[in-house]
């Protein structure tokens, strides 16, 4: 069932899956408002070109406490109480930072950066935005995790930092779900693997993807909204695949 969101917040919406989620939500006439965030104008042209009175765009870097504080202030000023928050911000590579093939390639600086963007940033986003989310109706806090963050499913090794940062993200979401069970009884927290999607993040690593297993951002966005739409508060704290099935921790 497609998600029924009146007021959504999509973080990391400049390109890739976040942009497609924003576009998809805006095709639904039931969506009243979408707040979509970008980090820099250079990569956000498509988002900034969307002309829809229901869309607000806000500049956010999830690694900056000040930026997250400003986001919360902006949402309050707009009286925007999101019932759906989806964090799409994440990195696999960034400049010199590339996924490690071996222990010898692991660098403290890159590992710290991966944890800051992929694990700590989304948790701090939850800290800033959960107080603004409604307590009296169904709502979702979801993050884009990755299958390679599954410890149980790790058969290939490699990608130390990315894998571990997504595993840490999953643990953060599980812990958050447990804490908020009482105070937000209608909240569903989800870590979701979006499936291998054609984006700047996956582009350098697409050569080994099996035919038919690389999805467009639009297909992925539709699936994510479908999976979230089927999830209830009692499902909170799970790690799920794009088809809705559970992934082992
Ligand atoms: N694509 C896949 O196959 C795949 C598979 C598994 C999981 N995922 C996960 O899905 C999520 C989205 O991936 P994607 O494929 O859409 O990647 P993408 O096209 O590279 O988009 C990444 C988004 O994250 C934003 N971002 C990066 N660092 C940020 C920061 N510090 N603060 C705020 N925003 C930041 C980027 O903004 P800028 O434009 O400013 O850089 C961009 O909007 C990621 O978490 C990724 O790990 C993707």
CATH-derived architecture = 3-Layer(aba) Sandwich
Give the amount of beta strand, in percent: 5-15%
The total of helices stands at 6
What is the global morphology? globular
Strands side by side in the biggest sheet: 3-2-1-4-5-6-7
For this entry, give a set of tags:
single chain, alpha/beta, Rossmann fold, seven-stranded parallel beta sheet, 35% helix, binds NADP nicotinamide-adenine-dinucleotide phosphate
Description:
The chain is α/β, with parallel strands linked by helices. It has a single domain, classed as Rossmann fold, CATH 3.40.50.720. The chain is built from 6 helices and 7 strands; from the N terminus they run βαβαβαβαβαβαβ. It has helices spanning 16-27, 45-48, 65-77, 108-129, 160-183, 217-229; strands spanning 7-11, 33-38, 55-59, 84-87, 139-144, 187-192, 238-240. Strands 3-2-1-4-5-6-7 form a 7-stranded parallel β-sheet, sandwiched between helices. β1, α1 and β2 form a beta-alpha-beta unit. α3 (65-77) packs parallel to α4 (108-129) and α4 (108-129) packs parallel to α5. It is globular. The model has no long low-confidence stretch (mean pLDDT 96). It binds NADP nicotinamide-adenine-dinucleotide phosphate (NAP). Residues 12, 14-18, 39-40, 43, 60-63, 88-92, 117, 121, 144, 146, 193-194, 196-197, 199-202 line the site of NADP nicotinamide-adenine-dinucleotide phosphate (NAP).
